[in-house]
Specification:
Order of helices and strands: HHEEHHEEEEEE
CATH architecture of the largest domain: Alpha-Beta Complex
CATH class of the largest domain: Alpha Beta
Number of strands: 8
Strand content: 5-15%
CATH superfamily of the largest domain: endopeptidase domain like (from Nostoc punctiforme)
Shape: rod-shaped
Number of helices: 4
Number of domains: 2
Strand order of the largest sheet: 3-8-4-5-6-7
Structural class: alpha+beta
C-alpha cells in the first residue's frame, strides 16, 4: 500500500508539474501578442492628438497676433489721417481769417476816409455860414477821432450774424456789438442793454448826434440798443433773421439815447 501510494503520488506530482508548465507556456504568447501592441497603439494615438492640439494652438496664436498687428496698424493710420485733416482745417481757417481781417481793414480804411470827408464838409459849411451844401446833420468830430473810429468799426461788422450772447468777432448780439465798438476808443461800457441805457448822459431822441447810443424800452430796463450813425439811421445787431444791419430810425423809433463821447 505504501508503495502504491508513493507511485501514485509521484505520478500526480509529475502531472501537476507538467500541467503547470503547459499553463505557463500557454499564457506566455497571450502576453506577447495582445497586451504590448495595444499599449503601443494607445501611446501613438495620444502623441498624435497632442501634436495636433499643439499645432492648432500655435496657429490660433499666430492668427490672433496677425489680427492685433493689423488692428494696431489701422489705428495708427487713422490717427495720422486725423492729424492731417486737422492741420488742413486749421490752415484753411487761418487763411480765411487772414483774408477776412484784410478785407475788414480795407473797408474800415475806406469808411474812415468817407467819414472824414463828411466831417470836413460840415465844418466848412459851418464856417462859411452856408447851409445849402451842409449835410442833413452835423457829424461831431472830436479831436481824438473817437466817433469816427466807433462808426467805422460798426460799419465793418454789417452782414455779421446775430447770436444771443455773441461778442464777436463774427457774430454779435445788440449790446455785445455796442460794447465792442466803444471799446475801440477806450470806453468800457456795461455788457447788457439795461446797463448801457443808463451809461453816459441822457439825451433826447430829437437832439441826436452821430455816436449816440440808442435804446428801446425804459431807462435801466431797455431790451435793445444800437448806435446812431446820422441821416436818421442807426446800426445794430437786430435779430437772427437780419443780423448786423443799418436801419431807418423812423421805422423803429428809439425810446431814449445816451451820449458817452
Amino acid at each position: 500500500m505504501a508503495l502504491r501510494a508513493g507511485v501514485a503520488g509521484g505520478v500526480l506530482s509529475t502531472i501537476a508539474v507538467a500541467g503547470s508548465a503547459n499553463a505557463a507556456t500557454a499564457a506566455e504568447p497571450v502576453t506577447e501578442t495582445i497586451e504590448m501592441p495595444t499599449l503601443t497603439a494607445t501611446l501613438t494615438s495620444k502623441a498624435a492628438l497632442s501634436a495636433e492640439a499643439t499645432q492648432q494652438a500655435a496657429d490660433a496664436y499666430q492668427y490672433r497676433a496677425e489680427q492685433q498687428s493689423a488692428a494696431e496698424k489701422a489705428v495708427k493710420d487713422a490717427k495720422k489721417a486725423h492729424k492731417a485733416a486737422e492741420k488742413k482745417a486749421e490752415a484753411a481757417a487761418k487763411k480765411k481769417a487772414e483774408e477776412r481781417a484784410a478785407a475788414e481793414r480795407a473797408a474800415r480804411s475806406a469808411e474812415r476816409t468817407d467819414l472824414s470827408g463828411v466831417q470836413t464838409a460840415a465844418a466848412t459849411s459851418s464856417s462859411t455860414g452856408s447851409s445849402a451844401s451842409a449835410p442833413s446833420q452835423d457829424v461831431p468830430a472830436p479831436a481824438s477821432g473817437s466817433v469816427a473810429s466807433v462808426i467805422s468799426f460798426l460799419q465793418a461788422q454789417v452782414g455779421d450774424a446775430y447770436v444771443m450772447g455773441g461778442t464777436g468777432p463774427n457774430s454779435w448780439d445788440c449790446s455785445g456789438l455796442v460794447q465792442a465798438a466803444f471799446k475801440q476808443v477806450g470806453v468800457d461800457l456795461p455788457r447788457t442793454s439795461q446797463e448801457q441805457s443808463t451809461a453816459g448822459t441822457q439825451v433826447g431822441t430829437s437832439n441826436l448826434q452821430v455816436g449816440d447810443i440808442l435804446y428801446w424800452g425804459g431807462q435801466g430796463s431797455a431790451y435793445h440798443t444800437g448806435v446812431y450813425i446820422g441821416d436818421g439811421k442807426y446800426l445794430d445787431a437786430a435779430n437772427p433773421s437780419k443780423g448786423v444791419v443799418i436801419q431807418d430810425l423812423s421805422g423803429y423809433p428809439a425810446d431814449g439815447a445816451v451820449r458817452v463821447l
